[in-house]
Each structure stands twice: as structure tokens, then as C-alpha cells.
Design goal:
Helix content is 37%, strand content 14%. By secondary structure, the chain is of the alpha/beta class. The chain has two domains: 17-108 and 116-248, 3-Layer(aba) Sandwich (Aspartate Aminotransferase, domain 2), CATH 3.40.640.10; 250-367, Aspartate Aminotransferase, domain 1, CATH 3.90.1150. It starts with 13 loop residues before the first helix and ends with a helix.
Length: 371
């Protein structure tokens, strides 16, 4: 019997949040509709100003997190013959964009405790072709940015942060997206700060690169109908920007709530033979996911489903073993920690509106597993 019972506690439910926000958001949408301006414009400029100031850099609103990565890598002139050091344990977007631009992803194994790039393994992978390090702040926990940036500076490499899952996360007082040369954000509906569709943002320190990305997002054009290079059409639209500006008023509270839920889970799950997420000292985790690990992951997932509880495996297949990476020549065993994580991780329900009773129910179902 697998998942025969309807899901009562989903892994994520945006409907609960939208129910509270609907009037305010409809009002924001109304403003845009009446203005008649849907592409870029004031709302996008205002959002860029706010996020640029908050994170530290120039912000450029784009069509998605994937486009944020693509345009950043392109604007850094990384392409054929270049190598980018990154993690094999994440969503496909960073690897897809490196490959799409003709460069080569060079994987480095993860730290099994944080799930992020292991900085101790980076230097041995640097070659004369390496141009960039691309850490991902996975599940909402910042990657080890201090050693990563220091290695990059020593070897004259750029650092591109994939912040898609970590809006609001920080180390000390510095939010993610402000450590390296550029930070790439996604506003996909499941993200910490999300819009009603696709959306993304690049935060970049260098003003010339910012201008280049601004041009690339509108067909490689700085002056209307004059095109300097091959660009794309990838703009954040005004409706999404207004929705994001409205939601920005609540995002700190949502993150606080996610952290409270994580603490609650931690207390309730403490005695079980599973590994729980960590938050290294000085790091501020935003718990995009609450990801546990167990060698009995598949049985656990089944047990949760049989009790009406949703859970998801992020991610079941490491990127070096994906068919799209077959020409890179990697094989099973190359990145043992990433491979083991793929077979052991399980993300539990977490979203700001999840109630304490629901957290208790998830924990009690996990405790009732035949350990
Ligand atoms: C780590 C990571 N990078 C990049 C992306 C791409 O973002 P988008 O879906 O907005 O293109 C996502 C998620 O969707 C992600 O989880």
C-alpha cells in the first residue's frame, strides 16, 4: 500500500499564504493594470533598487532564476574552453546554463553535513581553464563563502552564487548574493520570496557587468532598436515586480516562522536515528527545505505517505550521472558524498503557514516508524 491515503499535510502549500494576501495583491495588480505598463518600468526599477541595497550591488530583474544564471555567466564571458567549478548535488539549472554557454562544469563533492560544496576539495580541481566557482546555497543554508571567495581571489576566479533557494539567508550580517561577483535569485512560486509565475534577479557588484546584463535581457540592446550583441528576451514583468514588492513586507516574518518550525522539528526528532539539518555558527539558515537523511529513506517516505504526509526527494540523481552530462565522462563513485546524499535525503513539509500541530503530527508519524 503506497500513498493510498490522501495527503493531509503537504510538503508545501502556497494556497494558505495566498488566502491571506489576496486582497492586498489584487490591489497591486490593479495598479499595474490601470497603468497599462507591463514590461519593466517603475515597479521593476523599484524592486531592483530595494534588493540591490539590501544585498549589496546592482540588481537586474530577469525572467527566471535560470535566466539569471545564464545571463550572468554570459556577461562574465565564460564560454567554450572554460571550466566552472560547482556542485553535483543541486537542481539542474546551474549546470544546464554552464553547458548551454559551451563551458564545462567541473564537479567538486559536497560536505555531507551541510550538503554544500566542500571548500577543501576545490583547489585540486582548479586548472588553467578554470574561470569561476559557482556555489549553491542549497536548501536555504549559505555555502562556506569565506574559504570559497578566498580561493577564488588567490586564483583570479570569479564567484557566482546560486541563491535561488536562499533569499534572506546570511553569514553574519551579509546576505547571500553579496559575497561573490554575482548572486542569482529565483522567484519561482515555491521559493522563499516568490511571484505568481517565473521571475528572477541578478545582483552584481561591477557596474559595467550590470549594464551588460541589462542589455542582454533586452535583445543585447542598450539603445532601442540598436543591437550590440546576441541577447535574449528575459525581463521581469511589472505585475511580478509589484507582487514581489508587496510580499517583501512579509518575508522576514515568513523566514522567522520557517526557522521556528525547523527548531520545533529538531526538538521533536532529536532521539531518532536520522540526521537533521545543521546551522553552523554565524550562519542564518532560511529553511527553504528541512531535509533529513537516513539509509532507510525510501521506507520512511512510504511510511509518511501511508499516514497522509507529503515528502520529497531533492534530489534523487546527482548531476554528474545525469544523461545530459554523459559527455563529461564522469562515472558512479566519482562523488561519493553527493551520491550517498541522493540515496538518503528526504525533505519534510515546511512552509510558514504549517501549524505546530502539523509539525507534531509529522514528528509523531516519523517516531512511529518501525525503527
Ligand atoms: C538551486 C537552483 N538554482 C536555480 C533554479 C532555477 O530557478 P528558476 O526555476 O526560477 O529558473 C532553481 C529552482 O528552480 C534552484 O533550485
Amino acid at each position: 500500500m503506497t500513498g493510498s491515503r490522501p495527503i493531509e499535510i503537504p510538503i508545501f502549500d502556497l494556497g494558505r499564504q495566498n488566502e491571506k494576501l489576496i486582497d492586498g495583491i489584487l490591489n497591486e495588480i490593479r495598479k499595474v493594470v490601470l497603468s497599462g505598463r507591463f514590461i519593466l518600468g517603475e515597479a521593476v526599477a523599484e524592486l531592483e533598487e530595494r534588493l540591490g541595497e539590501m544585498i549589496g550591488g546592482r540588481a537586474i530583474g530577469v525572467g527566471s532564476g535560470t535566466d539569471a544564471l545564464y545571463l550572468t555567466i554570459k556577461a562574465l564571458d565564460i564560454g567554450a574552453g572554460d571550466e566552472v567549478i560547482t556542485s553535483p548535488f543541486t537542481f539542474i539549472a546551474p549546470i544546464e546554463t554552464i553547458l548551454a554557454l559551451g563551458a564545462r562544469p567541473v564537479f567538486v563533492d559536497i560536505d555531507p553535513i551541510t550538503f554544500n560544496l566542500n571548500p577543501d576539495l576545490i583547489e585540486e580541481r582548479i586548472t588553467e581553464r578554470t574561470r569561476a566557482i559557482l556555489p549553491i546555497h542549497l536548501f536555504g543554508l549559505p555555502a562556506a563563502m569565506e574559504p570559497i571567495v578566498s580561493i577564488a581571489r588567490q586564483h583570479n576566479l570569479v564567484v557566482i552564487e546560486d541563491c535561488a533557494q536562499a533569499f534572506g539567508a546570511r553569514i553574519g550580517d551579509q546576505p547571500v548574493g553579496g559575497f561573490g561577483d554575482a548572486g542569482c535569485f529565483s522567484f519561482f512560486p515555491t521559493k522563499i520570496l516568490s511571484c505568481f509565475g517565473d521571475g528572477g534577479m541578478v545582483i552584481v557588484r561591477d557596474p559595467d557587468r550590470a549594464e551588460r546584463i541589462r542589455s542582454l535581457r533586452v535583445h543585447g540592446s542598450r539603445k532601442k532598436y540598436y543591437h550590440e550583441e546576441i541577447g535574449v528576451n528575459s525581463r521581469l514583468d511589472a505585475l511580478q515586480a509589484r507582487i514581489l514588492l508587496y510580499k517583501l513586507n512579509f518575508v522576514d516574518e515568513w523566514i522567522r516562522r520557517r526557522r521556528e518550525i525547523a527548531d520545533h522539528y529538531r526538538k521533536l526528532l532529536k532521539g531518532l536515528p536520522i540526521s537533521l539539518p545543521v546551522e553552523p555558527e554565524g550562519y542564518y539558515h532560511v529553511y527553504h527545505q528541512f531535509t533529513i537523511r537516513s539509509p532507510r529513506r525510501d521506507e520512511l517516505k512510504r511510511h509518511l505517505a501511508e499516514n497522509g504526509i507529503g515528502s520529497t526527494v531533492y534530489y534523487p540523481t546527482p548531476l554528474h550521472l545525469q544523461p545530459v552530462c554523459k559527455d563529461l565522462g564522469y562515472k558512479p563513485g566519482d562523488f561519493p558524498e553527493a551520491e550517498r546524499a541522493c540515496s538518503e535525503v528526504l525533505s519534510l513539509p515546511i512552509f510558514p503557514e504549517l501549524t505546530p500541530r502539523e509539525v507534531e503530527r509529522v514528528a509523531s508519524v516519523l517516531s512511529s516508524f518501525d525503527w
